[in-house]
Structures are given as structure tokens and as C-alpha cells.
Amino acid sequence: MVNIIISTLLILVSVIVITALLTESLAAKGIIHKEIARKILHLTAGVCAALSLTFEGVEIFLYSAGILAAIFNFIAVRKNIFKGIHNGNRKSFGIFYLPLSFLFLVYIRQFFPSEAFYAMLILALSDSLAALAGLFIPGKKFNLTGDAKSFPGSSAFFITTFLILFIGNISQGVNSVFIHYNEFEKIIAFFSIGIILTAFEAISSRGTDNLTVPVASVFLLIVFANGQAGLPLNFFTGIFLSAIVATISFRVGFLTSDGSVATFLLAGFIFGLGGWKWSMPILTFFILSSLLSKFRKKRNQKVELYFEKTGTRDWLQVAANGGLGGVIICFAQIYPGDFWYLIYIASLAAVCADTWGTEIGTLWKTKTISVLNFRVVEQGVSGGISLPGTLGVLTGAFIVALSGLHWSTMPAGPYLLLMLFSGVLGSFFDSVLGATLQVQYKCNVCGKQTEREIHCSDRTMQSSGISWINNDVVNLLAGICGSIAVGLIIL
User: Fold this and answer.
1) Pick the residue with more confidence: 457 or 241?
2) CA-to-CA distance for 485 and 40, rounded, in angstroms?
3) How many secondary structure helices (H) and strands (E) does the chain include?
4) Are 262 and 318 in contact (CB under 8 A)?
5) Listed residue (223, 196, 209, 205) closest to 101, CA to CA
6) Fewer C-beta neighbours within 10 Å, C or N terminus of the chain?
7) How many of the other CB atoms lie within 10 Å of CB of 359?
């Protein structure tokens, strides 16, 4: 039996290899469009990978195939081996991310076999048909994070995902992951999962959807498979409210277009899975911080020239400040425990403290010193601290802590002190990173230090720090620092 399975798997691998060689040849000769060739290969590889996940007792073979495919595809992208099906002007590691997702799902399928299968199938079919629909069906285009998408393509992705879940539920019968829901709840679940995954695909670029879509798919399927009755309607209500919040925030200038989609995704998970208990703290942070940022910008716009970005948050800022909270609530769904909520509040207290420290610290002209050597620095420079900024740190952490106090399992006193500690520690860590590792530039026109690559309408020169450690990375690390510290204390 094992020999038959391995022979079948070898046939699937051969199909992928033959398809790759054939599509590359046809695209290189101009017989078929590059995008069509690329998506034929993507669909074939994805479907074969999904089928391979249904075989038992061949983990070593699957892991080996995935690792070899990842190594080969990485080299292929770097050396531009598949010139026929890839645009040389746009290097994408999508074909490298695909085997990484496969390896992840090979591991997950030990515990959730059906969920892993459908996650890979959604990536194979929905993503491929979305690209083809965008290519052949006229419709409005949009660009969120670098890749052009289209409304026909996104519609095709949603419809395909919905149908995969719908048909899969019927074909599996009593073994369906949605068996404990009534028919109405099942439709709501299929619809909600389709909407969320479509948003993930829309905001992904340069092939990252080959990672984001299967990971998000398998998580959502696991959550719904183990959820109680009422979860589909609660989740749908959550994403509906998150859509309202994201739209209003975009309209009033709190968010960019890509930031609004990221907020929709983040808030959809938190609102839909956590209810008011998890929603209130992040809403408090987001709304009050956005208002404070707008007010500070009007009052002291001069320091804006030092900051990398404006007060209108993009998707990277949303991910840096709230992404950790989204990850935490995901873990809380899979491994329930009261401590997750405290770690969640701690992460928000840290990022809110840092945000408010910057905003309040630059509301008016005040003495600012370096966190490293206590020498006077210009206001707005990374790593600078001030008395108003310190008060802002404490206020930001306290506000977030207060918003979650009602649901805390700890006594009020220790809880508030713990969250203030998280805020102060996270903000201090942010300042240290800002003064040491965060990338800094020097303007060739005015000679001032800035976080911007363009200053005084001219390109700046890097003067210190590490190029990839920008303000978003520092904010994310500050949140991680605060949450880890609190986690170590309470565990």
C-alpha cells in the first residue's frame, strides 16, 4: 500500500515538473501569455500538493519534496531561471513561498487533515482563477501594496473560495468541519471566510499571498471547526463592524487605502473572535491615538519633517501596532487561557505608550534629550525623550489598561501596575532602538537628521542604523518586548 502511495506521489511530482517545463517553453516562445502560463503552473502545483496531503504515512517524503522544491524555487528566482513565465522587471518569490506553505500544511495536517487540504486547495484554485479573471474580464483596477488587483479578480477569488467550502461541506457529509452548524450558519461561515481571505489576497503583493492565504485559511477553518454554535453569526457581525470602522477611518483621513484593508482584517479577527472584551482596548488605542496624532500635527507640524510617515496610518503601521494583538487572539482561540488576554493588553499598552509619548512629547516645543547620553537633541529625533513625552507614555499605557480592566482576571491594583510597567518598558525599548539600530538619514539640502528617504525634495543619505529597521519594525519590537515581559511575570 505504501509503495502505491509513493508511486502516486512521484506521479504528482512528475506532473508538476512537466507542467513547469511546458509552460516555460510556451511562454518563452510567446505562444501563451506569461500570466496564463504562470497560473497554469500555480494551479497544477497547488492541486497536486493538496492531493498529496490526503495520503497518510508518507510525511518524510512530503517534507523532503517540500524542502527540495523550496531550495530549487529560491535559486530559480535569484537566477531568473524561469524567464518565460516571470517578468524580469518584477522579481517575485511567490514560487518560493508556495513550498513553504506546503511544508507548514504538512505539519498542520497531523492534527487537522481536512483543514490543511482545503487551505491548499483554496490557494491553488482561488488565487489562480482570480488572476485569470483579472486578466480577461474588464473591470476597475486597484493597487494597495504594490501589485495591481482588479474587482473581477477579487470577485472570482471570493466566489471560488465560497464554492470550495460549500461543495466540500456537501461531499464530506458527516465528516465536514462545519457539521455542528445549521445550514444558515454554514452559509454565513463560508461567506465570512471568503471575505476575509479575499481581503488577504488583495493586500498581498509580490507572491506573499502564497503564504498569507493558506495560513489564514487553515487558521479560520480550525477555529470554525472547533467553534461553538453562534460563532459564524458573531464572526460575520465582527467583520461587518470592522468594515464600518475601516471605511470611516479612511474617509476621515486616519488610514490610507491599504491601511483600511489591514484594519478591516485585524479588526475582523478581533471583533469577530473576541467580542467587546478584546475589541474595546484596540478601539481605544486606535481612535484616541488617531485623534491625538491629528491634533499634534496641526499644533506642531514642524517636527513632522523628522518622522518617516505622516499621521495617516498605512498597512505597515497597522500591522506594527496591532498585528501582534491579532496573533495573540489567534493563539487564544487554539490554546485557550486567561493569560492571553493580559499579554494582549500588555502589547497594546506598550505600543500606545510609545505612540502617546511621541505625540504628547511633540505637542509643543520642549527640551528633548537622548535616551543614551542625556545630551540635548532636536525635538522629533528618534531616541529623544522629554518630560511631556514621559507623561504621555504613562497616560497612554493607563488608558489602554483602563479599557480592559472590566474583563481582567487580576485585581485592579496589580493589573494596572503591570500594564504601566509594560508601557514604560516598551516605550523605553523603542527609544533605545530608535537611538541605536533604527535607520537614520541625513538631508543633503538642510543637513538635518531624519527618518525619511526623501527630505527637502531630495534623496537623503543613510547616516546610521540598519536599513531594514525602520520605525514600523521598532514599534513592533516594542510591543513584543512589553508583552514578553508581562508574559514572563504572570506565567
Assistant:
1) 241
2) 48
3) 15, 9
4) yes
5) 209
6) N
7) 24
- C-alpha dihedral sign at 309, 312, 313, 314: negative
Query: What is the rounded CA–CA span in Å between residue 248 and residue 459?
Result: 34
**Portion of the chain with pLDDT greater than 70, in percent:** 94
d(CA 432, CA 419): 20
pLDDT for the residue numbered 207: 86
Residue 85 near residue 21 (C-beta atoms within 8 A):
no
pLDDT tens per residue across span 408-433 = 989 999 999 999 999 999 999 999 99
269 burial type by CB count under 10 A (0-12 exposed, 13-18 middle, 19+ buried): buried
Compute the chain's Rg from CA coordinates: 24
C-alpha cell at 44: 497544477
List the grid coordinates of 61.
Answer: 517524503
The pLDDT-based confidence of 483 (bands split at 50, 70, 90) is very high
Q: According to the model, what pLDDT value does residue 445 have?
A: 74
* d(C-alpha 443, C-alpha 432), whole Å: 23
| pLDDT computed for residue 236 by the predictor | 95
**Residues near 233 by beta carbon (within 8 Å), at least 6 away in sequence:** 185, 188
Q: Using an 8 Å Cβ cutoff, are 77 and 117 in contact?
A: no
Contact 165, 187 (CB under 8 A): no
Asked if residue 295 lies in contact with residue 351, where contact means CB atoms within 8 angstroms, the answer is no
Q: How confident is the model at residue 102 (pLDDT cuts 50, 70, 90)?
A: very high
Cell 455542528 sits at which residue?
180
**Do residues 210 and 123 touch, judged by C-beta distance below 8 A?**
yes
Q: How far is CA 132 from the centre of its chain?
A: 25
Q: What is the pLDDT of residue 289?
A: 92
Evaluate whether 145 touches 236 at the Cβ level (below 8 Å).
no
Question: Using CA atoms, how far apart are residues 211 and 99, in angstroms rounded to an integer?
Answer: 9
In terms of Cβ atoms closer than 10 Å to its own Cβ (0-12, 13-18, 19+), residue 226 is middle
* Chain CA centroid to CA 286, Å: 17
Percent of the chain with pLDDT over 90: 55
Rounded to whole angstroms, the Cα distance separating 252 from 255 reads 8
pLDDT at residue 86 above 90? Answer: no
Amino acid in position 204: S
Residue type, 377: V
C-alpha cell at 487: 508574559
Angle between helices 387-404 and 412-436 (to 10 degrees): 140
Alpha helices, DSSP H, located in 252-382? 257-299, 315-334, 339-361
Q: Residue 150: beta bridge partners?
A: 141
